[in-house]
């Protein structure tokens, strides 16, 4: 790389002149200049000025084995030398996606034994949407094609991903969504439970909004329900324990397929390989991406349950769908090595029995006591801190969620990279975090909260 020949200022100018960024207000970016992340090691990222930041977001929910893994670079290099690319169309295959598929079938819940590859979570959700509608058409029920999703869901940024998702701002910029997708309430008790309603009662009520949507459309018109086991980009919204079993019951009762989006929760984040296992959900499709390669290569895998797969194989003929890079050999080689590392280092088990509980304890015993914090919540190494003006009444500073941005900016200035979404501060760190890393994160977050409180209460 020759970027060292450029000053930060020059890079920022070129960035502003030529590079349109995802989810970015470009006018603001041009005024501020982008932060140039230039290297990373273990749990830390570094910017061009040498500033060290503890990466509380594992990149963007993906770098589960942490940075600087030579083994992953070597796996990519070896595969590129041997065979950089060949497609998996037209009855061809290459060995790495074959072996990865076997591995994923072993790790996935028992009813899942087939994999369809893409290069992003959005692509694989597009595949999932097409597949479930195609399934019902093949079963002679083409009208059974409505999908039920949830407000605030994030399922990606393509037209299909945005349509499946429930982000209002994204829909406003879409100019017409994929038809026949409806959105029901999210299972977020802290904000939506009625006074006196228990979390479990609220969870049942939230699940029954899915039943209401099925009854309204008629079960013969509903193909599937799609949901993230824990809503990620929507603010790490963890459903009450009653929610998923009730969703499962409703889907079975009305013969509605269950699509899980585990792009964030897959590959160890919740202390099991998949959150389907954490919550005991039996799904017909599971979308995965991100941590499949720990972000070292773009790769997604739609895990397809036996019910859909057998219809596709037996009745489907040719499925007119696929991507040039479906089953890309280099990405699949990196995924295989990444899974080997996760297994060898026992990272999933460690999240379940050690770091996950310790992370929860840090949030509960240190962060939740802070005057700005209305609620903390976590499963495994995925958590959120809710910022409020008043702990007792849950009053927010302002409706737009600008208070969390103040906290985030102080966090970054104090060596802690984390996200703000609405008034939720988000944590989704690499699974290599130890108790010591969690302590360090706790110190930095507390400092950021103190500084933010001084700003926010003064304003
Ligand atoms: N489903 C879920 C649950 C996701 O979180 C996607 C699908 C789409 O994946 P791709 O690979 O197409 O981006 C995601 C992605 C954020 C943020 O701000 C979250 C995602 C992507 C970008 C930003 O939290 N999740």
From TrEMBL:
Listed Pfam families: Aminotran_3
Enzyme class, spelled out: transferase
Native source species: Aminobacter aminovorans
Annotated family: Belongs to the class-III pyridoxal-phosphate-dependent aminotransferase family.
Taxonomic superkingdom: Bacteria
CDD domains: OAT_like
Name of this chain's protein: Aminotransferase
Gene3D superfamilies assigned: Aspartate Aminotransferase, domain 1 (3.90.1150.10), Type I PLP-dependent aspartate aminotransferase-like (Major domain) (3.40.640.10)
Keyword Glycosyltransferase recorded: no
């Amino acid at each position: 790389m020759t970027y060292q020949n450029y000053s930060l200022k020059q890079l920022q100018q070129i960035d502003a002149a030529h590079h349109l960024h995802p989810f970015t207000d470009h006018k603001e970016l041009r005024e501020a200049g982008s932060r140039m992340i230039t290297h990373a090691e273990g749990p830390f990222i570094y910017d061009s000025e040498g500033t060290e930041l503890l990466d509380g977001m594992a990149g963007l929910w993906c770098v589960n084995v942490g940075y600087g893994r030579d083994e992953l670079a070597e796996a990519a290099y070896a595969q590129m030398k041997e065979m950089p690319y060949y497609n998996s169309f037209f009855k061809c295959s290459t060995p790495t996606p074959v072996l990865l598929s076997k591995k994923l079938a072993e790790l996935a819940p028992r009813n899942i034994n087939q994999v369809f590859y893409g290069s992003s979570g959005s692509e694989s959700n597009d595949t999932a949407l097409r597949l479930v509608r195609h399934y019902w058409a093949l079963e002679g029920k083409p009208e059974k094609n409505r999908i039920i999703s949830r407000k605030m869901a994030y399922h990606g940024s393509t037209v299909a991903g945005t349509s499946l998702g429930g982000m209002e701002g994204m829909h406003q910029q879409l100019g017409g969504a994929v038809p026949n997708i409806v959105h029901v309430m999210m299972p977020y008790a802290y904000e939506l439970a009625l006074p006196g309603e228990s979390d479990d009662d609220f969870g049942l009520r939230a699940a029954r909004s899915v039943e209401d949507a099925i009854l309204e459309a008629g079960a013969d018109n509903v193909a599937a329900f799609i949901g993230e086991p824990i809503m990620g980009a929507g603010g790490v919204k963890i459903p009450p324990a009653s929610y998923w079993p009730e969703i499962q019951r409703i889907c079975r009762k009305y013969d509605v397929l269950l699509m899980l989006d585990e792009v964030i929760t897959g590959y160890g984040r919740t202390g099991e390989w998949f959150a389907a296992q954490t919550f005991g959900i039996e799904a017909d499709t599971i979308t995965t991406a991100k941590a499949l390669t720990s972000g070292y290569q773009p790769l997604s895998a739609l895990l397809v349950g036996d019910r859909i797969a057998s219809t596709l194989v037996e009745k489907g003929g040719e499925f007119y769908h696929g991507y040039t890079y479906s089953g890309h050999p280099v990405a699949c080689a990196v995924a295989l090595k990444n899974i080997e590392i996760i297994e060898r280092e026992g990272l999933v088990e460690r999240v379940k029995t050690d770091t996950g509980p310790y992370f929860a304890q840090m949030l509960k015993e240190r962060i939740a006591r802070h005057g700005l914090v209305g609620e903390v919540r976590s499963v495994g190494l995925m958590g959120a801190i809710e910022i409020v003006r008043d702990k007792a009444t849950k009053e927010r500073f302002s409706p737009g969620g600008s208070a969390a941005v103040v906290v985030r900016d102080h966090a970054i200035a104090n060596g802690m990279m984390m996200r703000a979404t609405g008034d939720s501060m988000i944590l989704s760190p690499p699974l290599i975090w130890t108790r010591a890393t969690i302590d360090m994160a706790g110190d930095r977050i507390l400092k950021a909260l103190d500084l933010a409180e001084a700003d926010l209460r003064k304003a």
